[in-house]
Automatic annotation (TrEMBL):
Keywords: Membrane, Transmembrane, Transmembrane helix
Name the record gives this protein: Uncharacterized protein
Transmembrane segments: 6-25
Amino acid sequence: MNVLKPWLPLITIVGLGSVIACYFMSDHYLRFTEEVQLASGELIAVDRKFKTEALGEIGGPGGWDAKFNSMVIIRPLRDGNPPIWQSEIGLIPILFDQDTGTKEWFVVTTFYMCDAWRKIGKPKLPYAEFRLRNGQWQQVDLSPQHIGRPANILTRISNKAELAYHTINTKIERMSAQGIAPRFNKITEEWVGCRN
């Protein structure tokens, strides 16, 4: 007589439940390419990579946070392109461009979770700016001229399924969907958010 036979349904349910829980609580990897319109009018393409952490379902459908993400220009390939920009603290690019005055490349980032805000020094506004100086991305104070500028980087990203290639039009469609906070669509000058 098989001793496990009466326990088989329970073992099956526990096993399946464990697999499902591991899937929802494990890391996910995303990669896609998107077109980016620079202030100069030039259209470039960047490669984006993410390692995401699923958040629980408590109080709603859950969500995710970026444990790692990166962005690099893949088209056009030329001298003078900046090196890869990356974050391991949950920052999400919102604006990527080249300063017309200084010719410095810059990335303005925001975040989904307040832990990233604390790690960048608890700024008044929900953004961190990075400028390429001496071949390195360096965090600097948010430049006032960015206030009001629209995002040119996709911030409404699905961690379940993402298009392999986002055109300017697919990004506009995604970013104009209801429910997205204004701070993800443009650099805002007001924000009520994280607490110490």
